[in-house]
Amino acid sequence: MSDPTPRLLLVEDDAHIRRFVRLALEAEQMEVHEAPTLRAGLIDAGTRRPDLVVLDLGLPDGDGVAFIRDLRAWSQIPVIVLSARTAEAEKIAALDAGADDYLTKPFGTGELLARVRAQLRRRAQGATDQPITAFGDVVLDQTRRVVERAGQPVHLTPIEYRLLAHLAAHPDRVLTHRQLLHAVWGPTHAEDTHYLRVHMANLRKKIEHDPSQARHLVTETGVGYRFVP
Predict the structure, then answer these.
(1) What does the record give as the DNA-binding region (predicted)?
(2) Separation of alpha carbons 132 and 163, rounded Å
(3) Structure confidence at residue 183 (pLDDT)
(4) According to a count of CB atoms within 10 Å of the terminal CB, is the N or C end of the chain lower?
């Protein structure tokens, strides 16, 4: 039996952009519902129960960040922000509110579709707290709390292990510096980004084949990091 058709909700006030994005998604055999306002988007998110939301931030009746906060009070549906706002502070605000990814306008159709597929794949895999995560030649076994690379043990510090485990629990999702610091170090270290940079650099040396061209522990410049399985 074939997989069910992915159901997406597009919250965007610009009719031309809505049509462009809808046609691109429908060409990939996805079902798309449109909402031109924040209020209509929240209603559709509750009634249609989409598999993913593509969200503009500049809506006529409110800010998209408010949409994300409201949605996150009752749902973990993946949200991809599609916005003309390019400032790092704007991206961080959306991601801290609970967005899963952020794509700035203008954007390429191929990149949008790749981001959508990644989030749908993550959702289809179900719970992200699987005890074993394999990527490249690395295996993270959270039951035994061990990491192996090419069959050999990798010796991580407790901080490095917690950092890798937290990133691996959120594949294909951008995690901000604040989110990672809060999760790994605790709320009193939410501004200590230098801690994060040092430990991430050390972790890459142990995990990546080429730490300067990371494939799995990817930097989102000025925002945070993304784990790519």
Answers:
(1) 130-229
(2) 15
(3) 86
(4) N
Q: Are 60 and 37 in contact (CB under 8 A)?
A: yes
Question: How much is the pLDDT for 126?
Answer: 60
pLDDT computed for residue 3 by the predictor: 55
What is the percent of the chain with per-residue pLDDT over 90, rounded to a whole number? 72
**Which amino acid does the sequence have at 162?**
R
Taking only the tens place, the pLDDT of each residue in 16-73 is 999 999 999 999 999 999 999 999 999 999 999 999 999 999 999 999 999 999 998 8
Hey, how many other C-beta atoms are within 10 angstroms of the C-beta on 132?
11
Cβ pair 42, 49 in contact under 8 A: no
Nearest residue to 136 (alpha-carbon basis) of 122, 124, 151: 151
Which tokens hold the place of 229? 């399985």
pLDDT at residue 2, rounded to an integer: 45
Inter-residue contact 68 to 79 (CB < 8 Å) = yes
Which domains occur in the chain, in start order? 7-125 (3.40.50.2300), 132-227 (1.10.10.10)
Among candidate residues 156, 121, 152, the one with its CA nearest the CA of residue 142: 156
CB atoms within 10 A of CB 54: 27
pLDDT reported for residue 129: 52
Q: Report whether 27 contacts 70 (CB < 8 A).
A: no
Measured CA distances, 94 to 62, 100, 116, 139 (Å) = 14, 9, 17, 31
Pairwise CA distance, residues 30 & 162, whole Å:
36
- Scanning the structure block, which residue is given the tokens 């230098």? 194
The DSSP H or E segment spanning 119 is: helix 109-124
